[in-house]
Amino acid sequence: MLLLKLAELFLIFAKIGLFTIGGGLAMLPLIRQELVERGYMTLKDTLDMVAISQMTPGPFAVNAATFAGMRMYGVAGAAAATLGAVLPSFVVCLAVAKRFFRLLDSSPTRSIMRGIRPVVYALIFSGMISISGGAIFATDGVDWAVLSIALVTTLLLWKTKISPILLILACAAVGALFLRGTV
Amino acid sequence: MATIFAATFKIGLFTFGGGLAMIPFLQAEFSEKRGWVSTEELANVVAAAQTLPGVMAVNTSLLTCYRVGGAAAAIVGTVGAILPSFLVLILVSVFYDAFIGNAYVRGALRGVGGAVAAMFVNTLIKMRKTNVGDWWAFAFFIVAFALIYVVPLVTGVEINVIFVILGAGLAGFLIFHVADRGRGSV
Q1: In chain B, where the domains are located
Q2: Is this model's pTM higher than 0.90 or not?
Q3: Which of residues 24-53 of A touch B (CB under 8 A)?
Q4: Contact at 8 Å (CB) between B137 and A117?
């Protein structure tokens, strides 16, 4: 029974891993469809998962898979989800490793990617709306504190060279100090 | 082999923020310190890693290590790159379960929620030129956004993201490849 659940988790993350092109944040709409809407995780869990994955070292996708798997079925779940997320990359890269430069330069591949790149952008855009929209525009009104943090951090990320991890830690510190009262 | 494992393990442990953030580390460990790959090779690897499906950090370490020592090195190096995140996250998850009720943790996560929003905005700003640089791309973006977000919201009908990606790939092939070729041969 557990083995079946683990196999299912493995397949879900293999699917997510295979169709993630262009970085971890593009995974989010897929994670929402595959995990939140099927009732494995809540949207709140997803937001925590994003926060924790950003705060910890390593690739976002691996972090997110380990965290999600761990929350669902413990260490076995973490292993199944991470293997699933990583396996497609493994297989695809090993398969093309020998001649990947030629493949990359071929004009059909370029045309296909030209079609897919805007979709990646749309994925990140809708990820932002569902994840950050939930964090800032809560059911009982706008969370002005979080909105201010978001605006200030955006400016700092955009206009300065301060490392993102420092900014995340700073936001965590600000939150721990000043945002404890209301949840 | 042990050196490759140690090098990617170190990179995995100290890289925050995914695939692109590991490039400077790869540059330092694989290129400058050991001379295993050239900077130019690394640049090509990054381009390929971004284009290929899958986790970018895995793609990057796999292709780089393949260059260094073939398939075996690729496997060893990739496991090395992933293992730190895996171990850290297992620890964090256990810790997280115990402390999620803690007011400080809740406050910190609320603060980070703001930072995550900022990260989204920043990623979108950075990717604007490469991903929605011309009118065709903008049209693709609008259609994709409508299918992924607006249609489910309005009609309640969920469209699988995977179909949208495959559809866009096919449309890109037909519009940019087949059509251009047709025009060329006339």
Answers
A1: 2-99, 100-131, 133-186
A2: no
A3: 24-25, 29-30, 33, 37, 47-48, 50-53
A4: yes
